[in-house]
């Protein structure tokens, strides 16, 4: 009756859950469910992306397996969520990237880094590539700033465009808010909910991961990763402003804003992904979409790679390793940018959209 | 596992865990024997969602005060006076402190669930439901050093001269063993899942009963205690039954198989005949009577019949209604005699008098000239598709139990208190709840008497 088997299963579960409702205090999914009596594909994709995978409803459910009702909301919504990424991907022709996502991400990352190494080697003299450079403009001896800015702006703009097209399809598919009211307050609420991972908390005690004890630290690791990513992005943005507005060229001294932001962000992007990866490996398979190992780990690895190469570049920027490290770091960042619409990165975009819709529905219901 | 404990708790639900935690906090070594596998631990507690506690003022989760006196009046009303007033008042008094004590044991509250607003003042709901509550209690018990064994089937109790000495135990892997303890807390529930036992009172009809909880509520500990000279309390023939979907599993369908659409239509038996006033009373009173009414019908089956105008008037149901474009088609799908169902509905429709429908009060929509009448909420069933839910009796719990005193101490048949045996929860609920039920009261009995039993059992063990 739905487009896919997993949506049929999600529909079955929401029917079970809607006649029980014991979990309504745990997160946003169940109150959103209660506003509906029947579930379209779009409704189910909305609920799937609203779910943060904290696992509490599985541990608390009297009907979870081995019960014959076989209620496993976190796993079912995880699978539905991953399938929704492919369904809404733009352009549709690239949705296949989600099928073997780990492989796709690895190949693109490898190719991207190889291309930068080869490019640096081809366009620079050996003495420049392995030379020791210091002072303002050191990086640009290997790649001109304008070339760098143009290439990365193009990659980022493409990623943003593809993401906008994808989330637009999602937004249309999940239909109007029940009751229907969209305003700035809902967006502000969603920013707060996403920013503090309000629903990754097991209803207050913490999340479940490897067993039935709410000891999971994913929220912490996710904060480190997410805010690390934002700090790195801020570092790059500040540096770009320095360059064009103040005429100050990188590298900057350790105490300067881009380096401070980048260092803090880089530390987050190293520790956070390690924590998330460890949690992912220890996670109870009952809670997981096991077929999405590549997608989950691929994205974590990309962030880790970006953080690690960036930090190495900072530490070793005044040695002969700077040239090759710069190539690796730029390769990693370029790969991260162009794979953003076709990997786990999209989870944040759809979840944020779902949180906006949820905030609208709450404001209407209140 | 040491084979001698200060306190042995038999059972694994709310009462058992409250007893285990209280005993452990009282300084005793404690073993909990749960007869079910880990997933099914907790007996009926896993299907509960709230507890009724007295409180003098509104709280974050309770919309207003619920005094001891009001609680007592409610209890008096639902039991029709079949209660031990001193014990009941003691429980109600103690329930006030349970609201906080249970939170200290890791349980979390939330405001009343969607669809249960009528309980928002009197009842506190567990965040995440009964299994979440159990999980919290088990985590706390483990953290305090309480030993817990699952799949632990107690095969015999060694009781001499009203003193508990040991329990004999059969375990799937580790085989048979005997466990001695200074005190016993019996918190192993009733016998609602024991069809053979139910048949003693209900005959073959019990084969058609559905059991709302796990298959492990077999009452074996209750039976052992009664066989060994413990005084019984409560009517052995009685059980709490509600109408649940006939398509529900034999065991453990829990709350989601319930139906309360009776008020929006009519209820017929397998001969397509109405048999009781569907509009007699408001929820939850009607909720609690329809199980018994259906149990008295041939083959213990009935059908709630309504039409398409009311489908969104009640909570969404687990099983969809069975539908027919005509009454005859619906009858065919239900395997009822089409002519008989058409006649019943036609007579009902003809008897409906105009009125103003309001399902939240006893409204003025009535029938005239039919038997039985529908005395409120009577509206014609005439807008296809015609819809039906098949229902059977769903057995929730039994009333037979062990007599206890205010210390939760078991009384022997001669009236003397046992030296070291205590009981808590459904196994002794009949002391305060001789019949009837009010939402959340089972959990009150479990937590209050569980805590008392654990405390007293530990006190006895230390002396």
Automatic annotation (TrEMBL), chain A:
Domain of life: Bacteria
The keyword Magnesium is annotated on this UniProt entry: no
Keywords: Membrane, Transmembrane, Transmembrane helix
Cited Gene3D superfamilies: Transmembrane di-heme cytochromes, Chain C
Stretches assigned to coiled coil: none
Keyword Phosphoprotein belongs to the record: no
Annotated SUPFAM superfamilies: 4Fe-4S ferredoxins, Respiratory nitrate reductase 1 gamma chain
Transmembrane segments: 103-123, 143-164, 224-245, 257-277, 297-316, 322-342
Alphabetical list of InterPro entries matching this protein: Citrate_utilization_prot_B (IPR012830), NarG-like_sf (IPR036197)
NCBIfam families: CitB
Full protein name: Tricarballylate utilization 4Fe-4S protein TcuB
Species of provenance: Bradyrhizobium frederickii
Gene it is expressed from: tcuB
From TrEMBL, chain B:
Top-level taxonomic group: Bacteria
Cofactor entry: FAD
Keywords per UniProt: FAD, Flavoprotein, Oxidoreductase
Molecular function (Gene Ontology), one example: oxidoreductase activity
Location of the FAD-dependent oxidoreductase 2 FAD-binding domain: 6-432
Stored SUPFAM superfamilies: FAD/NAD(P)-binding domain, Succinate dehydrogenase/fumarate reductase flavoprotein, catalytic domain
Pfam families named in the record: FAD_binding_2
InterPro entries named among the record's database cross-references: CobZ, FAD-dep_OxRdtase_2_FAD-bd, FAD-oxidoreductase_2, FAD/NAD-bd_sf, Succ_DH/fumarate_Rdtase_cat_sf
Protein name: FAD-dependent tricarballylate dehydrogenase TcuA
Lineage of origin: Bacteria, Pseudomonadati, Pseudomonadota, Alphaproteobacteria, Hyphomicrobiales
Gene that encodes it: tcuA
């Amino acid at each position: 009756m739905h487009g896919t088997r997993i949506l049929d299963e999600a529909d079955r579960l929401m029917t079970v859950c809607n006649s029980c409702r014991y979990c309504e205090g745990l997160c946003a999914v169940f109150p959103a469910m209660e506003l509906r009596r029947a579930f379209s594909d779009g409704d189910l994709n909305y609920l799937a992306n609203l779910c943060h995978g904290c696992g509490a409803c599985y541990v608390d459910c009297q009907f979870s397996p081995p019960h014959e009702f076989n209620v496993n909301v976190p796993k079912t919504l995880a699978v539905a969520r991953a399938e929704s990424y492919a369904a809404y991907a733009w352009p549709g022709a690239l949705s296949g990237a989600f099928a073997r996502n780990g492989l796709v991400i690895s190949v693109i990352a490898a190719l991207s880094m190889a291309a930068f190494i080869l490019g640096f080697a081809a366009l620079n003299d050996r003495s420049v590539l392995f030379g020791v450079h210091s002072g303002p403009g050191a990086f640009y001896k290997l790649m001109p700033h304008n070339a760098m800015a143009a290439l990365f702006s193009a990659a980022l703009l493409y990623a943003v465009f593809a993401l906008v097209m994808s989330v637009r399809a999602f937004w249309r598919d999940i239909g109007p808010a029940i009751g229907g009211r969209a305003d700035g307050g809902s967006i502000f609420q969603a920013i707060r909910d996403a920013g503090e991972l309000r629903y990754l908390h097991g209803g207050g005690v913490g999340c479940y991961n490897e067993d039935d004890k709410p000891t999971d630290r994913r929220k912490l690791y996710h904060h480190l990763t997410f805010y690390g990513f934002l700090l790195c992005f801020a570092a790059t943005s500040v540096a770009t402003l320095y360059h064009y507005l103040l005429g100050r060229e990188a590298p900057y001294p350790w105490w300067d804003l881009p380096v401070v932001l980048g260092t803090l962000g880089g530390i987050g992007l190293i520790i956070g992904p390690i924590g998330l990866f460890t949690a992912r490996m220890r996670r109870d398979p009952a809670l997981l979409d096991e077929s999405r190992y590549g997608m989950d780990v691929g994205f974590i690895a990309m962030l880790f790679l970006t953080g690690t190469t960036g930090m190495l570049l900072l530490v070793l920027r005044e040695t002969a390793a700077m040239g090759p490290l710069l190539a690796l770091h730029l390769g990693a960042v370029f790969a991260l940018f162009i794979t953003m619409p076709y990997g786990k990165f999209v989870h944040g975009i759809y979840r944020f959209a779902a949180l906006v819709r949820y905030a609208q529905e709450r404001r209407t219901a209140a | 596992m040491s084979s001698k404990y200060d306190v042995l708790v038999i059972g694994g639900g709310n009462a058992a865990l409250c007893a285990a935690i209280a005993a452990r906090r009282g300084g005793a070594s404690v073993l909990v024997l749960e007869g079910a596998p880990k997933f099914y631990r907790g007996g009926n507690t896993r299907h509960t969602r709230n507890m009724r506690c007295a409180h003098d003022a509104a709280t974050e989760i309770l919309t207003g005060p619920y005094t001891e006196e009001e609680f007592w009046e409610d209890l008096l009303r639902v039991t029709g006076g079949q209660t031990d007033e001193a014990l009941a008042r003691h429980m109600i008094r103690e329930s006030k402190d349970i609201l906080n004590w249970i939170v200290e044991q890791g349980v979390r509250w939330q405001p009343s669930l969607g669809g249960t607003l009528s309980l928002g003042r009197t009842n506190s709901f567990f965040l995440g439901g009964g299994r979440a509550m159990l999980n919290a209690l088990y985590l706390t018990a483990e953290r305090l050093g309480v030993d817990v064994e699952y799949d632990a089937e107690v095969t015999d109790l060694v009781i001499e001269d009203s003193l508990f000495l040991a329990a004999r135990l059969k375990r799937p892997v580790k085989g048979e063993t005997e466990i001695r303890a200074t005190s016993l807390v019996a918190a192993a529930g009733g016998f609602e899942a024991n069809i053979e036992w139910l048949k003693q009172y209900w005959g073959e009809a019990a084969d058609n009963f559905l059991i709302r909880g796990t298959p492990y509520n077999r009452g074996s500990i209750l039976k052992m205690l009664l066989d060994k000279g413990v005084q019984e309390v409560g009517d052995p023939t009685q059980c709490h039954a509600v109408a649940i979907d006939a398509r529900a599993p034999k065991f453990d369908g829990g709350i989601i198989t319930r139906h309360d659409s009776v008020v929006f239509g009519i209820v017929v038996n397998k001969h397509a005949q109405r048999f009781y006033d569907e509009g007699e009373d408001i929820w939850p009173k009607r909720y609690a009577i329809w199980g018994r009414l259906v149990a008295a019908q041939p083959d213990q089956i009935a059908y709630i019949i309504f039409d398409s105008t009311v489908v969104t008037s009640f909570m969404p149901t687990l099983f969809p209604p069975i539908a027919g474009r005509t009454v005859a088609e619906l009858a065919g799908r239900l395997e009822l005699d089409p002519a008989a169902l058409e006649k019943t509905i036609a007579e009902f429709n003809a008897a409906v008098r105009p009125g103003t429908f309001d399902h939240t009060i006893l409204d003025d929509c009535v029938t005239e000239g039919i038997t039985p009448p529908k005395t409120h909420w009577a509206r014609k069933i005439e807008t296809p598709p015609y819809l039906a839910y098949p229902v059977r009796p769903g057995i929730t719990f039994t009333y037979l139990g062990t007599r206890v005193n205010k210390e939760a101490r078991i009384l022997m048949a001669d009236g003397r208190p046992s030296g070291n045996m205590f009981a808590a929860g459904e196994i002794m609920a009949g002391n305060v709840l001789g019949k009837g039920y009010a939402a959340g009261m089972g959990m009150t009995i479990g937590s209050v008497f569980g805590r008392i039993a654990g405390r007293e059992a530990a006190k006895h063990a230390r002396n």
